[in-house]
Design brief:
This protein is mostly beta strands. It has one domain. Helices cover about 5% and strands about 45% of the residues. Strand 1 (about 1-10) and strand 2 (about 15-20) form a beta hairpin.
Length: about 500
């Protein structure tokens, strides 16, 4: 399942934007899950249609349940019973799911307290008992799990104060969402501290994991927590201040930063973390393609309007794996001789009065960093910026795979490699291989022994891109070199320029 935009395909040559799927077991055609201008499922008494699908879609590891966010025209109009006039039109954001792989249903909607839809209101546990509070937005990507459940992050306001929390709901019924954690709640592993931020969760096998911090920008307390469906409360899996195994560093060996993007398979959690006080400076450059308002906001926030800005990032970073059964914390990879950085940056958000922005967020535009990591049965795939080699000081990114304690992580694909390693069609007009220019993985992109990635290849004259799938081999000597050649084309996302 993937989000994509076509070139042409509608009247007046307008592109089709939506969420698509392909069954790789049958190598069938690409199918449309949902697309822009499609009717929003009930509740919808206005004939509202979708206009955007922020974030990526996520699919259950054991069923055909999938979930994604959707922005739309207002889906509900409230009519004055006396005058018959429209009082208000509401509901422009929601979470939509496909139980059993069938028709889409509304899993959540930002509808206020109107008759007939109490299942979309914020659980009173997260509002301090205040009733009839609506969700404002559902940042990030919702997690689909266990056939009918969706876990998500929700933003809302109580008495004018912005709040956030982690929730889950059975999309096949009419029950209200269950609150897992929320702003102002006590942090269990840090007496006296409360949650100031929570992150979009990951979920599997009746369990939900999420990152919660006292302060998102400069955390002093918080960590990664696990909640079980149908049971109150949650347990601490990894906390700010926990010791990083096997490292020595004069400025500290305890975790002081933990990433939001968690990859959870029901047994192990893969995540990014940092320790120590040393930093290095990275230069960020505004893009030249995409939403004009977002680009303008980026330039306005840059140094003297130059289009570039700098940020300090932790020097000591790592990719970790936490076993929720044994409690073991493993450092899979760390910055140093092989890796320079695990963080990658993007400028996103919604400028005031500028529509939904590139990501459809209701949050202001700013630079955001994230690590790309996905775990499956103790194996971890991650993206990294490789340590510079040679005199030019250039740093190239690569996709790496760790198969467990008996093997070191190895590079599967990297920047500048021939695109024909993954796709024989990635060539220019003369038949020369196009170099790889971008690689992406998502937290749910490594499931049941299969790894899904997206890859772009380009030269000055031509470009090619697609979504690709490979079965991770049994870790035996001699199989690693064959891994990249086993990647199978799922579907093309961009034609030659």
């Amino acid at each position: 399942m993937f989000r994509a935009r076509t070139r042409g395909g509608q009247q007046a040559g307008e592109p089709i934007t939506g969420v698509f799927s392909r069954d790789m077991a049958t190598l069938g055609p690409v199918g449309v899950v949902v697309e822009r201008n499609q009717l929003v499922p009930p509740p919808n008494n206005t004939g509202a249609t979708f206009n955007e699908f922020p974030a990526f879609a996520r699919i259950d590891q054991g069923s055909l349940l999938a979930a994604r966010r959707g922005q739309s025209q207002p889906v509900w109009q409230v009519i004055d019973p006396i005058t018959g006039e429209t009082v208000t039109r509401v509901g422009t954001s929601g979470i939509y799911a496909t139980p059993g792989g069938g028709a889409a249903v509304t899993g959540m909607a930002n509808l206020p307290a109107i008759a007939g839809f109490p299942q979309f209101l914020v659980a009173s546990a997260a509002t301090g008992g205040v009733a009839d509070v609506k969700f404002d937005q559902f940042p990030g990507a919702p997690a689909a799990f266990d056939g009918s459940l969706v876990a998500f992050k929700g933003n809302y306001a109580v008495d004018g104060a912005g709040q956030t929390g982690v929730f889950y709901r059975d999309v096949t019924g009419t029950g209200a969402p269950v609150a897992v954690a929320w702003s102002g709640q006590a942090i269990p592993n840090a007496p006296g501290a409360v949650f100031g931020s929570t992150a979009p969760p990951s979920a599997a096998a009746g369990q939900i994991v999420f990152t919660g911090l006292d302060n998102e920008d400069a955390p002093t307390a918080g960590g990664i927590y696990l909640a079980r469906v149908g049971q109150p409360g949650f347990n601490t899996l990894v906390g700010i201040g926990d010791t990083v195994p096997g490292v020595t560093n004069a400025s500290g060996t305890t975790l002081n930063r933990i990433g939001e993007a968690l990859s959870f398979d029901g047994r192990r959690v893969a995540f990014w973390g940092a320790w120590g006080t040393e930093t290095r400076t990275v230069t960020l450059t505004c893009g030249s393609e995409g939403n004009a308002a977002v680009i303008a906001a980026c330039i306005a926030q840059s140094d003297n309007g130059s289009g570039t800005t700098t940020r300090e990032v932790p020097l000591h970073q790592g990719i970790f794996l936490k076993d929720v059964v044994t409690g073991e914390l493993t450092l899979v990879a760390e910055t140093g001789a092989a890796y320079e950085d695990f963080l990658f940056w993007t400028f996103s958000g919604r400028p005031p009065g500028a529509g939904d922005g590139d990501e459809g967020d209701a949050e202001p535009p700013r630079w955001r960093s994230s690590a790309f990591v996905a775990g499956d049965a103790g194996r971890v795939a991650f993206k990294a910026l490789k340590s510079p080699e040679g005199d030019d000081g250039a740093s190239l990114f690569g996709l790496f795979l760790d198969l467990g304690d008996d093997f070191n992580p190895f590079e599967v694909l990297g920047e500048g490699m021939a695109g024909t390693l993954v796709d024989p069609l990635a060539v220019d007009e003369l038949g020369n291989p196009l170099p790889i220019t971008a690689i992406a993985i998502e937290r749910d992109g490594f499931r049941n022994g299969w790894l899904a990635i997206s890859v772009s290849m380009a030269s000055e004259e031509a470009g090619w891109a697609g979504v690709y799938l490979a079965q991770v081999p049994v870790p035996e000597p001699g199989t690693f070199a064959l891994f990249a050649g086993g990647l199978t084309m799922l579907g093309l996302a961009r034609r030659r320029r």
